């Protein structure tokens, strides 16, 4: 994703290179007001400089240009440049400005980009990637370079950057056919800017498109007379609103529309910050609703990467109902790193130890495929974990998929307090489930051996398990938001209502979903295009349906409260 260390180079970089065709007639009159620029928070709030200093495969050349695996990489150079700009504005340290300028020198060097025609240029990838053959050109590279060069121009006033910015934008918004641009059309007929143009596998990646919107906004602010580009920006916002549902699984996000892969933990934190940035620049409450919704998905999903400022940070924390019918945060469960805690793993399923260890990879796309052993078909399939030491465990969770999409695994859990003990104790948990995820909470136990028995394995000839986690008891932590999903409510023919008391909240948004029955409700998703801020919420229907609400609130302080949540038929 991101990478590398700070470098020191000369500051004398005004008009450092000449573009191959410095056609000033292409360039509209630029603004003198740069108050529109925002911190690039999806980088600057996510990483410290350790991301670049202590990351394998990242280095600098003698000119201070960021390298990825010893090669220049336009996107990663832009990531580093955007970080350095924000750090320079925050700290005033000259080394950050010098490092930014080193990346800009590389970006403005005519040897770094391809001339597509008189009006457009593009940074190439000269590598084969999946179904793409070199050279190919990414909207992500062009859009981030636009954002970098606008910041460079705002900082230095170097007009040599302006025609480069214009030609990059011209390429990005041109059709992808013939490798002449990055624009495609979604199945719904909306414009999309492709991170991987012309790729069928990597079709319409959400992350790259969100950053393309940022660059179109900044471009239209740099050149306020270019109303055509401003329309492209507003059209792209509408595309997100009509397309987001195709990436939302109901509990996580997919990477693209070409396959079913889901993004990793760190990627989700990145995208939450992108949504926050889009809310800041657009003022559109939709992006705040989107940010709050996705924040509720990422609870207790750590991101372990060099320099990660948000390794264990939760943007939103779940609430539970206490004895006084108030919603309170029950604390945060800290996930053990099983790759360092597990001394031995055994199972009655087919599969090697390396295959079984895929279960506790935090990437949702990394599954352990558990297959029945025929001779044990009538028995109980199980997995046993031996830990290096006793662990205090209060929660066990896992994500799963199987051939029977309507079923979920029934799991019995046992533990021993030491490897040598002969006494097994059974755990009686409270069980909660999301689509394709099940969580078992119980009174904390000290365990060195954990035994997981799949009681209904015959319904799962093959089960794929990922993101398996053992969690410690909770502790009090801070976050941006709190969230609570109501139990299922059966409405009347007229509909359903939700009401609750609240105090000390900056914002409260309510999401709603409904279906004809409980099974259908599980597969329904929250709709960020239809949210509610006026309490009570009343949903009118003409048939009897089952309903569920998701309350997400933004507390002003730790004393903010929500109480007496009542959902009932109209």
Overview of this structure, please?
- The protein is globular and about 80 Å long.
- It is built from 13 helices and 27 strands.
- The chain has helices at residues 41-44, 50-53, 74-91, 94-108, 139-156, 161-172, 206-222, 227-243, 265-282, 285-297, 338-341, 353-357, 518-523; strands spanning 58-60, 66-68, 71-72, 114-117, 120-122, 124-125, 136-137, 183-185, 191-193, 316-321, 326-329, 332-335, 342-347, 368-371, 381-402, 411-416, 425-427, 430-434, 437-454, 462-475, 481-485, 489-490, 495-503, 505-515, 537-540, 546-555, 561-569.
- The relative contact order is 0.09.
- α5 (139-156) packs antiparallel against α6 (161-172).
- It is α+β, with helices and mostly antiparallel strands.
- The strands form six sheets. Strands 10, 11, 21, 22, 23, 24, 25, 26 and 27 form a nine-stranded mixed beta sheet that branches. Strands 12, 13, 14, 15, 16, 17, 18, 19 and 20 form a nine-stranded antiparallel beta sheet that branches. Strands 1-2-3 form a three-stranded antiparallel beta sheet, covered by helices on one side.
- It folds into four domains: 1-9 and 43-112, no CATH class; 116-242, no CATH class; 335-475, Jelly Rolls; 481-569, no CATH class.
- The model is unreliable at 1-21 (pLDDT under 50).
- The longest helix is centred in the N-terminal third of the chain and has 18 residues, at 74-91.
């Amino acid at each position: 994703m991101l990478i590398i260390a700070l470098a020191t180079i000369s500051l004398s970089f005004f008009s450092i290179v000449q573009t191959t065709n410095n056609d000033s007639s292409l360039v509209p009159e630029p603004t003198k007001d740069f108050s529109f620029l925002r911190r690039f928070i999806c980088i600057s709030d996510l990483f410290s400089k350790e991301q670049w200093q202590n990351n394998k495969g990242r280095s600098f050349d003698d000119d201070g240009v960021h390298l990825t695996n010893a090669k220049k990489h336009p996107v990663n150079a832009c990531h580093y440049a955007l970080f350095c700009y924000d750090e320079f504005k925050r700290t005033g340290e000259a080394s950050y400005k010098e490092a930014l300028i080193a990346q800009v020198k590389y970006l403005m060097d005519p040897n770094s980009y391809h001339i597509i025609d008189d009006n457009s240029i593009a940074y190439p990838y000269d590598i084969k990637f999946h179904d793409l053959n070199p050279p190919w050109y990414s909207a992500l590279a062009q859009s981030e370079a636009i954002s970098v060069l606008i910041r460079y121009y705002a900082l230095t006033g170097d007009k040599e950057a302006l025609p480069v910015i214009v030609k990059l934008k011209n390429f990005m918004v041109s059709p992808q056919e013939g490798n002449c641009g990055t624009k495609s059309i979604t199945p719904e007929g909306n414009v999309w800017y492709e991170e991987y143009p012309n790729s069928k596998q990597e079709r319409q990646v959400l992350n790259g498109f969100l950053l393309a919107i940022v660059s179109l906004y900044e471009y239209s602010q740099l050149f306020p007379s270019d109303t055509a580009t401003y329309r492209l920006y507003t059209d792209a916002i509408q595309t997100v609103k009509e397309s987001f549902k195709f990436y939302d699984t109901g509990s996580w996000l997919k990477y693209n529309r070409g396959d079913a892969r889901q993004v990793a933990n760190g990627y989700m934190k990145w995208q939450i910050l992108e949504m926050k940035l889009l809310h800041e620049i657009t003022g559109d409450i939709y992006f705040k609703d989107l940010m709050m919704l996705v924040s509720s998905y990422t609870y207790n999903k750590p991101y372990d990467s060099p320099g990660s400022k948000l390794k264990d940070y939760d943007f939103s924390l779940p609430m539970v109902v206490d004895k006084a019918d108030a919603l309170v945060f029950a604390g945060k469960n800290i996930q053990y790193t099983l790759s360092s805690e597990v001394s031995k793993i055994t199972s009655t399923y087919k599969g090697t130890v390396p295959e079984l260890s895929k279960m506790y990879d935090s990437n949702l796309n990394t599954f352990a495929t558990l297959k029945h052993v025929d001779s044990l078909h009538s028995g109980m399939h199980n997995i046993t974990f031996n830990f290096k030491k006793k662990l205090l465990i209060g929660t066990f969770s896992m994500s799963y998929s199987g051939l029977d999409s309507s079923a979920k695994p029934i799991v019995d859990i046992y533990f021993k307090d030491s490897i040598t003990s002969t006494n097994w104790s059974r755990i009686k948990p409270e069980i909660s489930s999301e689509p394709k995820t099940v969580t078992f909470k119980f009174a904390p136990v000290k365990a060195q051996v954990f035994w997981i028995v799949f009681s209904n394995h015959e319904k799962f000839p093959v089960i794929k398990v990922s993101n398996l986690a053992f969690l410690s008891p909770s502790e009090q932590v801070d976050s941006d938001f709190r969230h609570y999903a109501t139990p299922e409510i059966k409405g009347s023919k007229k509909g359903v209502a939700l009401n609750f008391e609240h105090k000390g909240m900056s914002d409260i948004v309510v999401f709603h979903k409904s279906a004809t029955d409980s099974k259908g409700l599980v597969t329904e998703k929250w709709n960020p295009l239809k949210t509610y801020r006026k309490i009570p919420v009343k949903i009118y229907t003409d048939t009897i349906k089952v309903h569920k609400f998701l309350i997400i609130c933004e507390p002003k302080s730790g004393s903010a409260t929500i109480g007496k949540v009542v959902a009932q038929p109209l």
